[in-house]
Amino acid sequence: MLTLKRPRISRLAAILAFAAYIALLLNIAFYRQVLALLPFNSLYNVLVFVSMPVALFCIISVILLLASFVWLERPLISLFILLSAAAQYFILTYGIIVDRSMVTNIVDTTPADDTPRTTPARPSPRRTAAGRSPYAATSTQSSPPAW
Predict the structure, then answer these.
(1) What pTM does this model have?
(2) Which of 70, 71, 110, 124 has its CA 20 to 30 A from that of 96?
(3) How far apart are CA 93 and CA 66, in angstroms?
């Protein structure tokens, strides 16, 4: 019987593969906006555009390699993928670029600041003929209904 072995990949190869995936594929929306703003009329502009994914790959690789010494590369890879996917979604959906000030505002937002925006508004209670809300607390002694 043929038994299949689980493929093995070294830690370094996995880190480099995920860094390439994040740098190249999870930033396509950003690169599209840069292409729209950066004309390719000179070699300098072409080199600037090509250096963006290379620099991002190097930065992510160094961070993940340093984190691998304390076994944090898998949570960091997951965090990078989630953050990059969320940023790409907002870039593609709303046509914005997530910059440092937006991230700062997200981090500084408290639940008290955000609750009015995320909680649906309660409808105002209907009033009875007597001008009271039907949801208002009533006493334990009830009067007979007035018909």
Answers:
(1) 0.68
(2) 110
(3) 34
